[in-house]
């Protein structure tokens, strides 16, 4: 029997200090509500950072997990399994892709994507065509390769020397990309909406221009849809609303509805470069993960649910604008679907963490995208009343922050 209290203080005692979680410890959830150890109730606008697309403890996901748990948990990749094959078929049927590689996280999916891009160019054009272009403020994961492709120096600092052959240009600046791309470029990597970088959407004409430049230079276009995928924008994947198709796409977060899984999707043209033995993942394609993911995909990839994302967003925007009319604290509301970024006014820049703490004290869970932007990525099926109730709590938190700033 474990006798020591299991609380936030234990985190500081036993965990590596790379995270600084909120003081309360959640113990259960249902739908868009969460309860902590003291049975305090919270409305969840964070969604596990865009992971819990169907809320907490969705009965269909629980049923899929329980059913598979009684059958088969793990094999190895010397065998395949039915849930992985069914999920791969459903993903290829629903997207541009012909082939899928399964792994456990977004970082792993991106690692695979970047390796594949280089291997494809090596196979088809030779070793000199190896350069990757990405964008400032982009975020693609925390492995050494993915953090190097990411365009935020703070995440690389202290881990150098980083992998070479990677450069960055400003997001939404087609002229800068045109000046940087060359016949040595093997891939351009981008998020349809920069999530960690401040919830900044790509301009539609920019995306089309990137695709054209990639085609001109025989470079692959890689879309990181870790955060934007699986219904987040009201499309199954964000590229579907942009009029372009990538050559490689990565997916994770909402793909498992809370169960860890990642996937890299690509075409029959590119996939052969990952021939036998070139890449792998011990747990990738795990039957438990794939069974839950299949259930999540079946529920999310429905017109009624996807079309309703825009209606949910409209309520968020309406309520945020009401708060701003009264308190003038937001500079801009941006994003798409239920990936929402709210930039604070200049005088409140740097106060993102204070908003998170104040919201938590009021009973609301939100996120940041840098110190100046509040981020919300709730369940795609969050009840309308939960949105309005949560916004009332956000307003209470905002009043406290504004008062504290005025008194300082």
Please give the structural blueprint:
Blueprint: H1 8-14, E1 26-30, E2 33-36, E3 41-44, H2 47-50, H3 59-69, H4 82-94, E4 99-103, H5 106-125, E5 131-135, H6 144-149, H7 153-156, E6 166-169, H8 174-180, E7 185-190, E8 193-194, E9 200-201, H9 204-216, E10 220-224, E11 248-251, E12 262-266, H10 287-300, H11 303-327, E13 330-336, E14 339-344, H12 352-362, E15 364-365, E16 367-368, E17 373-376, H13 384-407
Parallel strand pairs: 3-15, 5-6, 5-7, 7-10, 10-11
Antiparallel strand pairs: 1-2, 2-3, 4-12, 8-9, 11-12, 13-14, 14-17, 16-17
Helix pairs in contact: 3-10, 4-10, 11-13, 12-13
Pathway: Amino-acid biosynthesis; L-arginine biosynthesis; N(2)-acetyl-L-ornithine from L-glutamate: step 4/4
GO biological process, one term: L-arginine biosynthetic process
Catalytic activity: N(2)-acetyl-L-ornithine + 2-oxoglutarate = N-acetyl-L-glutamate 5-semialdehyde + L-glutamate
Keyphrases for this structure?
alpha/beta; 408 residues; arginine biosynthesis; Aspartate Aminotransferase, domain 2; pyridoxal phosphate binding; Aspartate Aminotransferase, domain 1; four-stranded mixed beta sheet; Acetylornithine aminotransferase; 2 domains; identical protein binding; 18% strand; aminotransferase
User: What is the average per-residue confidence, as pLDDT, rounded to a whole number?
Assistant: 96
The CATH superfamily title of the largest domain: Type I PLP-dependent aspartate aminotransferase-like (Major domain)
Shape: globular
Percent strand: 15-25%
What Rg is obtained from the alpha carbons, in whole angstroms? 21 Å
**CATH fold topology of the largest domain:** Aspartate Aminotransferase, domain 2
Compute the number of helices: 13
Which sequence of SSEs, written as H and E, runs from N to C? HEEEHHHEHEHHEHEEEHEEEHHEEHEEEH
Count of the separate structural domains? 2
Structural class: alpha/beta
CATH class of the largest domain: Alpha Beta
Q: Quick one: biggest sheet?
A: 7 strands, mixed
Low-confidence stretches: none
The CATH architecture of the largest domain is 3-Layer(aba) Sandwich
Give the strand tally. Answer: 17
Distance between the termini: 48 Å
**Into which percent range does the helicity of residues fall?**
25-40%
State the strand order across the main sheet. Answer: 4-12-11-10-7-5-6
Pathway: Amino-acid biosynthesis; L-arginine biosynthesis; N(2)-acetyl-L-ornithine from L-glutamate: step 4/4
Pfam families: Aminotran_3
Keywords: Amino-acid biosynthesis, Aminotransferase, Arginine biosynthesis, Cytoplasm, Pyridoxal phosphate, Transferase
GO molecular function: identical protein binding; N2-acetyl-L-ornithine:2-oxoglutarate 5-aminotransferase activity; pyridoxal phosphate binding
